[in-house]
Predict the structure.
Amino acid sequence: MSLLAFRDVDAYYGRAQVLHGVTFDIRPEERVAILGRNGVGKTTVVNAFLGIATIRRGEVDLAGRTASRFQHFTAARSGIAVVPQGRRIIPGLSIRENLLLGAAVGRRGGWNLERVFDLFPILRERADTPGTALSGGQQQMLAIGRALMANPSLLVLDEPSEGLAPVIVDELAEIFRRLAAEGTGILLIEQNFGLVRRVADRYYVLSKGTVIEAGELAGLSMETLKRHVAV
């Protein structure tokens, strides 16, 4: 069974079509990347299964539940947690409160506040600080921790390296690999070819809302990878 699968999906915002016949799948414990330049539809892949973009043809399978229309909470209840582009830390809430929001879906599992604090000690140190007072890298840690509090089978990361210093990206790469080694599936939507190379095993390339290439990252040359993800 796939954790997430698209089957010939056309997705729209209003009358504007963004995805054209997109098909891909992610199986348990896999590490998969979706590559592509800005504006090719990568975030729309996420918005399609979150119910933000409208699916007018094709189907999406969320852990065995197949449909063409979803509520915003359907993915989380199906074991798919999203770390959104831009992090979306809730203003006015502390780090602790932002993390507890992730647990609201009520899925059981091994992730709780203490385990997230063990993974990101800076969040424990500043637990009662407003989440928006953190640096960009720390806010990304908070967004990841919040997603893990939902005890996902699949962690979806939308441009997690955006705006971060290389040393922070290196740290995140190790964390993503560690999570994968512990059995969490990873979908990495990214343009940073170094991060993709270190985290993913398989890839799909989007161009103008269409999957134009797919394969294994092993053996793929860095120059070929750069061609697909460089802005």
About this structure: The domain at 1-79+189-231 is CATH 3.40.50.300 (Rossmann fold). The mean pLDDT is 91. The longest helix spans residues 166-181. The two ends are 34 Å apart (CA to CA).
